[in-house]
Specification:
Number of domains: 2
Strand content: 25-35%
CATH architecture of the largest domain: 3-Layer(aba) Sandwich
CATH topology of the largest domain: Rossmann fold
Helix content: 10-25%
CATH class of the largest domain: Alpha Beta
Structural class: alpha/beta
Order of helices and strands: EEEEEEEHEHEHEEEHEEE
Strand order of the largest sheet: 8-7-9-10-11-12-15
Shape: globular
Low-confidence stretches: 1-56, 235-265
């Protein structure tokens, strides 16, 4: 009795796509590999064959390390702990992430934006295969969208960008693969829509709206989950012998509007 297995990678891009793991078992007496795959909120449970089978039949999901460099650009007055805490928390959840905090618009444009650009160029020279991700909130959202255009002129692609309630974000350049626009819709929120540069048919744009504050958006659990989901690759392996639960992109926000203008690079 021989079992063959195929390990496959699961990728999250835009709306989460769950790829099934295929397994073929030879032998007339064995039941079908997967009996049912019911969906529940935020999870899919995969039921495997009868527990009387002697061989291991379960799938175990594990994150796979990715070669990313992520740059978190906070908003105005983020040098104050009670303002900039959201990105501090997000940084702890990410590998190879840099966090930039500052106080004034002048500092943001004159000091922080050139520093982030220099850091990205240096990291790119050191490892051109590393994928560049930009995350910015408020005035930091203005900065990261402007940075993407500077990186385009330098011939550097942006793998993923998260824009959190930016007041005046720049149009998204065609070197950006995917961009999520997170906005809030209560007093004090900016709620600006993102637009692609004319002729940009490469970038996948998705927008999400939440009931939270402008500052709170940076620490909002569903925003963190979405960003982490976009920067995480999963691998399924045949392992133990009980039903397993596989994370699925949660239904987040008041609205979930997707604008697609092409296929990401």
């Amino acid at each position: 009795m021989v079992m063959s297995t195929l390990d496959m990678n699961i990728f999250r891009r835009g709306r989460f796509a769950l790829l099934a793991v295929l397994a073929a078992i030879s032998g007339p007496s064995l039941p079908a590999m997967a009996q049912s795959v019911p969906a529940s909120q935020g999870m899919v449970t995969a039921y495997l064959p009868d527990s009387s089978l002697a061989m291991p039949q379960n799938f175990e999901i594990r994150p796979v390390a990715e070669n990313y460099r992520t740059y978190l650009v906070n908003g105005l007055a983020s040098g104050l702990p009670f303002i900039g805490y959201g990105f501090e928390h997000l940084k702890k959840k990410l590998d190879n992430a840099r966090h930039y905090a500052y106080m004034t618009p002048v500092e943001g444009r004159v000091v922080i934006q050139p520093k982030v650009l220099a850091d990205i160029k240096r990291d790119h020279r050191a490892d051109p295969s590393a994928k560049i991700n930009l995350v910015g909130i408020s005035y930091g959202a203005n900065i990261v969208t402007a940075l993407a255009r500077q990186l385009e002129r330098a011939g550097i692609n942006v793998n993923y960008m998260a824009v959190l309630d930016g007041p005046m974000p720049a149009r998204i350049s065609s070197n950006v693969g995917r961009v999520d626009n997170f906005v809030c819709r209560i007093p004090g929120c900016m709620g600006a829509r993102l637009k692609l540069e004319r002729g940009n048919k490469n970038t996948i744009l998705q927008e999400f709206t939440f009931r939270t504050t402008h500052v709170g958006l940076a620490d909002y659990a569903k925003v963190h989950d979405r960003i982490l989901g976009q920067l995480t690759e999963y691998q399924l392996n045949v392992a133990t012998h009980s039903p397993v639960q596989v994370p699925v992109e949660p239904q987040i926000g008041m609205t979930d509007t997707m604008t697609t203008s092409g296929i990401a690079r």
